[in-house]
Design a protein that fits this description.
The protein is globular, with a radius of gyration of 17 Å. With 233 residues, it is an alpha/beta fold. 45% of the residues lie in helices and 16% in strands. The protein has 10 helices and 8 strands. An 8-stranded parallel beta barrel has the order 1-2-3-4-5-6-7-8, surrounded by 7 helices. α3 runs parallel beside α4 and α6 crosses α7. The longest helix has 17 residues. It has a single domain, classed as TIM Barrel (Alpha-Beta Barrel). Bound molecules: cytidine-5'-monophosphate. The site of cytidine-5'-monophosphate (C5P) has 16 residues, from β8 and α9.
């Protein structure tokens, strides 16, 4: 079975992360470690989670000078992660060097994906930093730049998936957060989509946090998402 669900371990202690990991099966899902958990627990936890058999998406959204980002991506690959990301707005050269840093890992290298425009950014937020394009145009521009740099895909909201899927090659992967079932609260997510809808629009991987991590039974919630996806594929 292709594991399309990435469970977001948005916790600030290793204990909470381990409790969740004890409830879900690494043959059924992958997991994401972001800035909160990484800042709290560091690379040790990343290596431990990999050792438990989970594919880890290290979501640290690197954005710095090309040499520094290339070095950070190389260290992430050495930890054994499955996917790592950089901000596409760091530019073509930064992304190319990050991608080249993974060459020596051959077919074992992690997937490298770009972050386009954060979903928290509105048109006025973009204008404030000097970007005149509307968010959709900017997402598309940065997705093409990511592809030109040799990246494997981008993170994008469900609202952008259909457009990007139509514009970009099939093998370019789309990673989509903001996924909710009908019964789930949207929380702070403004643009949400159901799991089946996201898959039908062309997402390859769905990042799901609270609907699984805060469920009474995370294993049961995960299974429901898996079933919903299976019905859409
Ligand atoms: O709990 P929830 O399902 O909203 O978690 C979604 C996860 O995806 C969080 O880890 C969040 O940081 C991440 N994410 C997002 N929107 C983006 C990029 C990442 O929600 N544009």
């Amino acid at each position: 079975m292709e594991k399309r669900i990435i469970v977001a371990l948005d916790f600030d202690t290793a204990k909470q992360a381990r409790e969740l990991l004890a409830c879900v099966d690494p043959t059924l899902c992958r997991v994401k470690i972001g800035k909160e958990l990484f800042t709290a627990c560091g690379p040790r936890l990343v290596k431990d989670v990999c050792a438990l058999g989970f594919d880890v998406f290290l979501d640290l959204k690197f954005h710095d000078i090309p040499n520094t980002v290339a070095g950070a991506v190389r260290v992430a690959a050495n930890m054994g992660v499955w996917m790592v990301n950089v901000h596409a707005s760091g530019g073509l050269e930064m992304m190319e060097q990050a991608r080249q840093a993974l060459d020596s890992f051959g077919s074992d290298r992690p997937l490298l994906v770009g972050v386009t425009v954060l979903t928290s950014m509105s048109k006025s937020g973009l204008e404030q930093i000097g970007v005149e394009a509307n968010p959709e145009e900017q997402v598309s521009r940065l997705a093409f730049l990511s592809r030109d740099a040799g990246l494997d895909g981008v993170v994008c909201s469900a609202a952008e998936t259909r457009l990007l899927r139509a514009q970009l090659p099939d093998e370019f992967c789309l990673v989509t957060p903001g996924i909710r079932r009908e019964e789930d609260a949207s929380g702070d997510q403004k643009r949400v989509a159901g799991p089946a809808e996201a898959i039908r629009s062309g997402s390859n991987y769905l990042v799901i946090g609270r609907p699984i991590t805060r469920a009474e039974s995370p294993a049961h919630a995960l299974q429901e998402f898996i079933s919903a996806i299976a019905s859409a594929s």
